[in-house]
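Why should sequence recovery work at all? Because a backbone constrains its sequence more than one might expect. Tight turns favour small or flexible residues, buried strands favour hydrophobic ones, and helices have their own preferences. The token representation captures these environments compactly. In the example below, the structure is given first.
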């Protein structure tokens, strides 16, 4: 995996709200409104966070009508897991 891609993923996960969204998506796909509900922030702010997650490759989105649904990108999580596992083996 290229270093820039790892940088984007770790940057995306550096924010507590984005980590919370990733946690929620770990239980299955969710709409923007479902992801925004537990957060005390405006919808445009939620969308900016989701954009960071999507740009990092950690989540994918699909739009059906007026509803945008996000889901975890398992392959990207696998890259992170392998990177961390390799560091654990080196210590």
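From this structural description, the recovered sequence reads:
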């Amino acid at each position: 995996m290229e270093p820039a891609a790892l940088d984007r993923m770790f940057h995306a996960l550096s924010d507590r709200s984005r980590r919370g969204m990733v946690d929620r998506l770990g239980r299955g796909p969710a709409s923007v409104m479902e992801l925004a509900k537990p957060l005390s922030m405006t919808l445009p702010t939620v969308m900016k966070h989701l954009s960071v997650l999507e740009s990092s490759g950690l989540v994918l989105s699909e739009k059906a009508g007026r509803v945008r649904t996000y889901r975890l990108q398992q392959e990207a999580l696998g890259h992170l897991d392998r990177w961390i596992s390799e560091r654990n083996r080196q210590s």
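A few observations help interpret the result. The two ends are 21 Å apart (CA to CA).
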